[in-house]
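Person: I have long wanted to understand how a fold can be written as tokens. Underneath my words sits a plain record pairing an amino acid chain with its backbone structure tokens. Those tokens are not coordinates but codes from a learned vocabulary of shapes. I should like you to check that the lines agree and flag anything odd. The protein I mean follows directly.
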Amino acid sequence: MASNLHQPTDLPEVLPLSPRREMLLRAQGHKGFLIGLAIVTLAALCAVLAPVIAPHDPYVQDLTNRLLPPVWQDGGSAAHLLGTDQFGRDLLSRVIYGARVTMLVGVGAVVVSGFIGSLLGLLGGYFGGWVDSAVVFLTSVKLAMPGVLIALSLLTIFGGSLLSITLIVGFLFWDRFAIVVRTATQQLRSSDFITAAETAGASKAWIIGREILPNVLNQIIVVASLEMAIAILVEASLSFLGLGIQPPMPSWGLLVSEGRPYLMFKPYLINVPGLTIFVLVVGINLLGDGLRDILSPRGRA
């Protein structure tokens, strides 16, 4: 007996995910990206909310409580969770306020270097010819220059203020932006949509700013995240050598330098700020590596 029942032959069509939804799913499944994002977000919150969350004034000295150990060591006090320095200043408060200096230098230097390098890369990659040759020459000269030594020389001239350190680091570390953006622009220069824009009479400034720049923005973001870690390490190194941020302003590199005479007796004075630098740099690198994977057109495992 034939059955009147029949199975449907038309299955519902599965719609492809939008690029934004696909990147969101990649981000949710990327452990390194999530860990790096959490670390960088925590550092940014400490920098922004320092006056609210810091338990003490980082500049107030109390010689009666100098060199108190952390709370987990004998003689520690809950009033100073990470102990105090040689002037009786609360170490936790100085570390929290030091995040402000670190993030300001990192972000500010990346903005300066990203603007210079991206602009040179866009111009050289799009125009080619003598413009590209000039960009390649400048980049080669920059790569041949010892950036940290030049930064030391400039800081002895202009001083170790927050503004001077940010500008000097920004002006000395733009080469990676230029290389990456120039290469990406060269690949896009012969694309059909660029040819269509030129045929329609669009100006070169319009093509660079509205057609090419949005398509290389992903690469710029990835490079910026990695360059931020380098800027933070350079600032910490300069402050450690005494040519960066000057006391009493709290800087993580300066905190390490101030605790150096007490390394054998009070190692927490170096371990605490040194660990914060290490964790933040690792977090930024994890974030940058995750962004590279997430923003990649095909994604990476």
About this structure: The chain has one domain: 21-295. The domain at 21-295 is CATH 1.10.3720.10 (MetI-like fold).
